Amino acid sequence: MHYVTEDELREAYGTCPFEKYKLPEDARLTPSARQFLIDFRIEFEGDERGPKPHGEARGIHVSPRREPTVDLGALVFDANLLGARLRLLARRALGVDNTVARRTERVGRLWQEARVASDLVTGDGHADPGGGPPGPAPVPTFDAGIHPIFFEMASVHAQIGRYARSWARAKESLGPEEARVASAWVGEATTVCELLEEAISNAEEEV
């Protein structure tokens, strides 16, 4: 099973903008990829959770669509990508902010090495059911005294936040156990973003 990511769609759209998208056979959209198509008002078919084709609104007959649960394999794929990004950030932060370096390396490795969704749930598997996804990414002050790594932290924060918000919305389509796993991952993503926010804030105070 291939999972089409938002990055793949953005790259294709940047090369040649399109108004319709047909999902290849044996492929699924990640939640963030689906949201990209919706945001850009791109008609798409082949994904059972996609918006209705424009023809249906005009009264043209289309086959009814079954409403499936979201495939958590897409969550693993998203986490793998973000884990690699976190580990790169950890390497670059080493020697500048060792607290961020150690913690992002730990979480990044967990996400990057995950093969099934349950691998993403840490030891206690706890997630705050009332907690939401991360807020907007911080915007570091443009100052020569602030190390470039803190601008990279803001970029990673934005990437994690976008994926986490997509999966927070996707939880509504999941069964209880799958929703628990997704909630745990969104909670972990929020914790990582809070760590990055604190690091950026501390850096600005020291200038």
| Biggest beta sheet summary | 2 strands, parallel
Query: What general outline do the C-alpha atoms trace?
Result: globular
The CATH class of the largest domain is identified as Mainly Alpha
Q: Give the fraction of residues assigned to helices.
A: 55-70%
Mean pLDDT: 83
**Topology order in helix (H) and strand (E) letters:** EHEEHEHHHHH
Hey, roughly how much beta strand do the residues contain?
5-15%
Given as residue ranges, the uncertain stretches (5+ residues, pLDDT < 50) are 49-69
Radius of gyration: 19 Å
Number of helices: 7
Q: Give, in spatial order, the strands making up the sheet with the most strands.
A: 1-3
Terminal CA distance reads 49 Å
CATH architecture of the largest domain: Up-down Bundle
Explain what you see.
- The protein is 55% helix and 6% strand.
- It is mostly helical.
- The longest helix is centred in the last third of the chain and has 31 residues, at 176-206.
- The chain starts with a strand and ends with a helix.
